[in-house]
Design a protein that fits this description.
Rossmann fold; six-stranded parallel β-sheet; alpha/beta
């Protein structure tokens, strides 16, 4: 039976570098026999107690997608050393109880296999990957060992607006794909 991995991209920009990276990851997963799906969470409302219950339909739909997945792969830009607010909002919704005041039942993301990647500048996404790793552990996901793979974008990428991975970067992502598949198969 094929495994399904959801990809949550932290940028909705039309020509997002991280969406390009996620496309490469998805293609590589598919070549390995894993179903890759993009999680569309653009229309999630901002999480606040006034809007949490009754649960908005957009949230119910996202939770159901996550519930049926074998893993979640975060692919995010680095914003001021951290992750974008929209990505944080998604993870906040996933980490909340589905029924009001039910803190006993595990959340939909509890125990889910997770990993992360990022295309960024000279930091090679070091800070965002550390922050994502910390957050994923805090909300009780089953985080794959290591902080993930950070790709340093070339000067050409910034000038052309097109992400072109080097062979070395492709090898790093390919290895992360294989490791994540092994990780989710251990469950």
């Amino acid at each position: 039976m094929s495994k399904t991995i959801l990809l949550a991209v932290g940028s909705f920009r039309k020509q997002s570098f991280n969406k390009s990276l996620a496309n490469y990851i998805a293609e590589t997963l598919e070549k390995e026999g894993v179903t890759a799906k993009f999680l569309n969470y653009r229309n999630l409302p901002i999480l606040e107690q006034d809007t949490e219950y009754p649960t908005p339909q957009e949230v119910i739909d996202i939770r159901n997608e996550v519930r049926n997945a074998d893993g979640l792969w975060i692919v995010t830009p680095e914003y001021n050393g951290s992750y974008p607010a929209l990505l944080k909002n998604l993870l906040d919704w996933l980490s909340r109880p589905e029924k009001q005041f039910d803190f006993e039942t595990p959340t939909v993301i509890n125990g889910l296999a997770t990993t992360a990647s990022s295309a960024a500048g000279s930091t090679k996404a070091k800070f965002v990957l550390e922050n994502v790793h910390t957050l994923l552990k805090y909300i009780r996901t089953n985080v794959m060992t290591g902080n993930g793979v950070g790709i340093q974008m070339s000067q050409e990428t910034w000038q052309t607006g097109e992400l072109k991975l080097t062979e070395e970067q492709k090898e790093q992502i390919n290895e992360q794909v294989l490791q994540f598949i092994k990780f989710i198969n251990k469950k």
